Amino acid sequence: MEVRRKSRIKTLIEILIVSLKLGCTSFGGPIAHLGYFHQEYVRRRKWMDEESYADLVALSQFLPGPASSQVGIGVGVIHGGVIGGIISFVGFTLPSVLVLIVFAMYLHTFNVNEAGWIHGLKIVAVVVVAHAILGMAKKLTPDMPRQTIALAALIAVLVIPAATIQIIVIILAAVVGFLIYRNQIAADKLQSIKQFPVSRRFGLLCLVAFFLLLFLLPILSRVISSDWFAIISDFYRSGALVFGGGHVVLPLLEQAFVQAGRLNESQFLAGYGVTQAVPGPLFTFAAYIGTIMKGSLGGVIAIVAIFLPAFLLILGVLPFWNTIRGNAKVKGALMGVNAAVVGILLAALYNPIWTTSILDVYDFVLAAILFGMLVFWKMPPWTVVIAGILGGWLML
C-alpha cells in the first residue's frame, strides 16, 4: 500500500512538472497546443498510444469548451485519475493566469487604458481574430449550405439585439445541420480510449451537474443579489456554450461584461491582445476580466468558473464516447453549429473589435502590417503583439 501511494504521488508530481513546462512554452493557439501535447505525451513519455490520443482529440473537438485544455485534462485523468486531470489543468493554465492577473492589476492601478500601446493591443486583437476566422472558415464552411448558415448567423447576431441571440443561433444551426447532413455522413470506425479510470455512473453524475449548473446558475444569480454570483454564472455559461475554439469565447464575454457595463471596451480589447502574447489556453482571458472587476480573487474565481464546464464535460462524456461518435446524425448537427460559429465570430470582428480599434487610416495600415507578419511571414504571435504595442506607442 505504501509503495502504491508513493508511486501515485510520484506520478502526480510528474504530471505537474510536465504540464507546467507545457504551460510555459505552448505558444500558438489550440492547434499548436495539440502538437506540443502529442510530442510530449505520446512520442516522448508514451503516456498514451497514437490511437487513444487521436480519439481524445476527436472528443475535445466534439465538445464545447477549450479543446486543447480538455485534451490536457483527459491526458491527466488517464495517467493519474481525476486528481491527475486537475493537476494537469493547473500546470498548463497557471503561467498565463499569473501574467494576465498581474497585467490587469497594473492597468487598474495606473489607469493606462488610453495609452498608445493599449490601442496597439486593440489592433492586435483585430488581426488575431481575423486570422482565426480565415482558418476556421476554410475548415468549417467548405460548402454552400454551411456558408449560408454562417452568413445567416452573422446577420442575426448583428441586427437582433436580444441578449440570448447567440444561443438561439447555435440551436437553430444545430437543427439545420441535422436536417441537411443527417443522411450524408458515414459513421466513423469506432476506437476505444484505453484505461480511462472513470465509470459511466460517475460520468453521468458529471453530465447532470453540468446541465444543472447551466440552467440553475442564471436563475440563482437573479434571485440572489450578489455580484459574485452573477460573475460565476456568466463565466460558467461562456465556458459551456463555446464551440469552435477559444477565440469564439470573445463575443460571449463581450456581451456578458462589456455590454453589461462591468468593464469598458478598451480594457476588454487590451486584455485580449495581451492574451495572444502568453502561452497556454485563450480561456485564461477570463483571469484578466475577473481581476479588472474584482481583483486577484475575482481572477481566480473567473478561471474556475469558465473551465468548470470543460471538466464536467470531458469526465462526463468520455465513458460514453464510443457510442456517441458513431452517430452520423449527431455529427450533422455539429457541422451546422460549427458553421454558425464562423458567422458569430465575424460579427464580433466587426463589433466591438473593428469599430473600437480601427479609427483612422494609420490604424488600418498598422493592422495590415501585423496581419502580414502573422499570415504571410508566419511570425510567432508574441512578435506580432510586441510590434502592435510599439506601433500603437509610436502613433500616439
Summarize the model shown:
The chain is mainly alpha-helical and 396 residues long.
User: Mean pLDDT score, rounded?
Assistant: 83
Structure summary, number of beta strands: 0
What is the number of helical segments per DSSP (H or I, 4+ residues)?
Answer: 16
Distance between the termini: 66 Å
Global geometry: globular
H/E element sequence: HHHHHHHHHHHHHHHH
Question: What are its keywords?
Answer:
single chain, 396 residues, mainly alpha, 16 helices, 79% helix, Chromate_transpt, cell membrane
What does this structure look like?
Its main location: membrane. InterPro entries: Chr_Tranpt_l_chain, Chromate_transpt. It is a multi-pass membrane protein. It comes from Aciduricibacillus chroicocephali. This is Chromate efflux transporter. With 396 residues, the protein is mainly alpha-helical. The protein has one domain. The protein is 79% helix and 0% strand. Helix 4 crosses helix 11 and helix 6 runs antiparallel to helix 7. The longest helix has 44 residues.
Per-chain topology:
Blueprint: H1 2-25, H2 30-44, H3 50-62, H4 67-110, H5 116-140, H6 144-159, H7 165-181, H8 200-223, H9 227-240, H10 249-258, H11 265-275, H12 285-317, H13 321-324, H14 328-357, H15 361-376, H16 381-395
Helix pairs in contact: 1-4, 2-4, 3-4, 4-11, 4-12, 5-11, 5-14, 5-15, 5-16, 6-7, 6-14, 7-14, 8-9, 8-12, 9-10, 9-12, 11-12, 15-16
